Amino acid sequence: MPRITLVKADDLETWWFTIEVMGESLYEGEKYTLQFRFDANYPISSPAVQFVVTDGHTSPIHPICASILGNEWSPVLSVVAVCVTIQSMLASCKKKERPIDNDRYVRNAPDNPKKTRFHYDGKIISHATNTEITHSANYTNVLDDTV
Q: What distance in Å separates the CA atoms of residue 31 and residue 22, rounded to the nearest whole number?
């Protein structure tokens, strides 16, 4: 049974969950808070999902680069399916490190991660270093406010 807990859902627009990473991995037993934001087009459009760092109050929010939150979204996917995908991503990590471009992205990221276009593939060119990296994603900020 996946260790997923609903923390807060005061309205239909924003929900908070905690997930615990299971299995023998670098992140085994660690808990993370996720914020789901749903727009008026949900479930046709994906929710905006971000990691939330909490220390008694809301701190920085970090985007999640998962293809099912972008170009592979389907209205049949559930919140639990997204949580399990994120658990699986963490459980399969071979190194415990943030993507190379993470700090630059977080500094310049839009409020809504859906305004970022991620490019998903196994080999990706880093914007900052113009080098090939794996287990990360390229991104560009979208200036269109309709997302």
A: 10
Catalytic one of 65, 66, 82, 137: 65
Distance separating alpha carbons of residues 22 and 25, to the nearest angstrom: 8
65 given a catalytic annotation: yes
Q: What is the reported pLDDT for 118? A: 59
pTM value? Answer: 0.71
Rounded Cα distance between 127 and 31, Å, is 30
- C-beta pairs of 44-50 under 8 Å, 24+ apart in sequence: 44/75, 45/73, 45/114, 46/70, 46/73, 46/77, 46/114, 47/79, 47/82, 48/112, 48/113, 48/114, 49/82, 49/86, 49/113, 50/113
Give the Cβ contact number of residue 44 at 10 Å: 10
pLDDT digits 0-9 by tens, 110-147: 666 666 665 555 433 333 333 333 333 444 433 333 33
Query: Greater confidence, 102 or 7?
Result: 7
